Amino acid sequence: MSELALRHNDDAVLERHHAHTTFELLLRDPDSALFESLNKQDLRQVRKAILEGILATDMSKHVRMCEVLVGKINKGASSSTAA
Questions:
Q1: Cα 65 from chain centre
Q2: If you average pLDDT over residues 26-31, what whole number do you get?
Q3: CA–CA distance from 67 to each of 52, 63, 64, 71 (Å)?
Q4: Are 13 and 57 in contact (CB under 8 A)?
Q5: 8, 45, 51, 65: which could form a disulfide with 16 (CB 3.0–4.6 Å)?
């Protein structure tokens, strides 16, 4: 078992590692002031969106996410045609 698997409890190991590394680089590097103008709430929203994007690359969950997306699209299409 790898150190990463242990650290991330065998769940989306590489994706969680990538998320951790991304924010470690962006928040701790003084040359990277990408988030400096954001207030706490906006930073939280941006961080959540980035994390969701990274975690969405976990192929073991990809099929389920596609099913949810198709369901939302179909629900939206049926409600717009009913109007």
A1: 12
A2: 80
A3: 17, 6, 5, 6
A4: no
A5: 8
